[in-house]
Amino acid sequence: MNLKPTFTIESLLEGCKRGERKAQEYLYKALSSKMMAVCMRYSKDNYEAEDILQMGFVKVFSKVSEFRSEGSFEGWIRRIMVNTAIETYRKNMRSMKVVDIEEVYDQPQSTFDMSQLETKDLMKLVQQLSSGYRMVFNMYVIEGYSHREIGETLGISEGASKSQLSRARTILKEKLIKIEGSNYATYAG
Amino acid sequence: MRPMQDKDFDQLFKERFEAFEVDPSEGLWQNITNKLDTPVQKQKKTFAPYWMAAASVVLLTSAVLWLSRPGEVIKLQGKSHEQVIVNQNKETGKEAKPIESQIIDEPARKTVVSTQPEKARYSVSRKGGKSEVRQLNKTALPEKVSPQAPVIEEVLLATQPVSIDVPKQRKAVTNEGNEVVMAKVDESEIEDYKEAETTSPRIKSVGGLVNFVIAQVDKRDDKIIEFKDGEEGSTLSGINIGPLKFKSRSK
Predict the structure, then answer these.
(1) Main-chain phi, psi angles of B239, to 5 degrees
(2) Are B224 and B245 contacting, i.e. CB atoms less than 8 angstroms apart?
(3) Nearest-by-Cβ selection for B35 from A37, A58, A142
(4) What gap in Å lies between CA B150 and CA B148, rounded to an integer?
(5) Taking residues B215-240, what's their average pLDDT?
(6) A96 touches B at CB < 8 Å
(7) Does A26 share its domain with A46?
(8) In this structure, are residues A89 and A155 in contact, taking their beta carbons and an 8 Å threshold?
């Protein structure tokens, strides 16, 4: 019998609005691993991801009174994480010189048997993308932003968003082929 | 290998990532509570820009005040001119007054008076009938003036030495019922003078401002540094550092 108190995320909302530490902690425990995965997609490593996660949760707790129950509470928290990641990227952009042009050759479109791959390996591939490609890929593919929205948010043109997405895909495919090749090699050997 | 659509490729990633969960490190919740417990620091950070904004507003206003200072000084100059003008008018007024008093005896001199400025003539013509003056003069006349009173005042005024300080004279002029119009005239003339005076020496450029500041400090003929306003902004027109002197000829 599970005596650990279980809460739905929505039921924690009121406690969080009142600033109750217990409610905040339960909310964190319920969502931190999911949100960590979101932050990881936008980061080059777990340290960066945890920084974003921490900032995101602080924002969630300090802005929870602004949450109107129009969508799900979890969806709202996820958006805050994504926005925090985008802000962090933009801040870094200012101090970082952009070396974005990777030599990419279009791979013949092929199918991938990703069932053999663990998601954490896919995550590594995404994290290895240069930050610009990673942003566009995540925002378009996972979060479902349009190219126009991505362009506006990141301060690039719609066309640049499109071309960065296609380059990101090409890089990922190239790497998947390599992994599949090595997997085949291990099976063969 | 079968060709794969981008859409399908994207879908694979999307499905995988949406079901993915990774536990963050243990200490992270503690970090978050620490941040939540110290909102003061956060506030301090956010207030810093406000302080900067306030400081820049203060800087700006003081800069504006400083820049507008030369204008004020010129106005003061205009005032000193005003004083001179009042003195001059005082003289003309004095000229007019004897004439006025004479008019009562010799109406023939009216022609002479007409060579005076127009306003002087008004006051003269009004002089003829006291009742008329009150109707024409819209500015309040001081109570009831006995028919002889203004004349006496005029005489007094006329005999007053010029050395009397200016504000007093002006007061006397305006207090005098019959002279109010004249005082007004003077004012408009002064206005003209003022305009003429203030427009010409106004500081138009940085060079002009520097000249003005230098002029306050350096009273020599050849200033330590001097600028000249040309068609293409201000140019250096003179330098005087002891033995090293330079002065452009085209001045």
Answers:
(1) -135, 140
(2) no
(3) A58
(4) 6
(5) 75
(6) no
(7) yes
(8) no
User: Average pLDDT in the B99-123 region?
Assistant: 45
Final residue of a structural domain among A43, A68, A96 = A96
Residue of A nearest to B14 (CA): A142
| CB of B30 closer than 8 Å to CB of B38 | no
In a domain, A118, yes or no: yes
Please report the pLDDT score of residue A103 as a whole number.
52
- Alpha-carbon distances, residue A133 vs A92, A109, A121, A170 (angstroms): 14, 19, 18, 11
- Is A62 in Cβ contact with B39 (below 8 Å)? yes
pLDDT surpasses 70 at A188: no
Q: Residue A71 and residue B222: Cα distance in Å, rounded?
A: 78
Closest Cα to residue B82, out of B196, B201, B202? B196
Write out the residue range of the structural domain in which residue A128 sits: 100-189
The predicted model scores a pTM of 0.49
Which residues, numbered 2 to 21 in chain B, qualify as contacts with chain A under a Cβ-Cβ cut-off of 8 Å? 2-6, 9-10, 12-14, 16-21
Nearest CA to B158 out of B166, B149, B169 is that of B169
Query: How many structural domains compose chain A?
Result: 2
In three-state secondary structure terms, A145 is coil
DSSP annotation of A71 reads: S
CB contact under 8 A, B12 and A141: no
Instruction: Give the β-pairing of B233-241 and B225-230.
Output: antiparallel
Average pLDDT of B22-48?
79
Task: Provide the mean pLDDT of chain B.
Answer: 63
Residue A114 has pLDDT above 80, yes or no: no
Helix, strand or coil, per DSSP, at residue B247: strand
A99 pLDDT more than 80: no
- Which of B16, B29, B39 lies at the smallest CB-CB distance from A25? B29
What is the C-alpha separation between A134 and A41, in angstroms, rounded? 8
Report residue B195 as tokens.
């305009």
Residues A41 and A104 in one domain: no
Q: Is the pLDDT of residue A9 over 90?
A: no
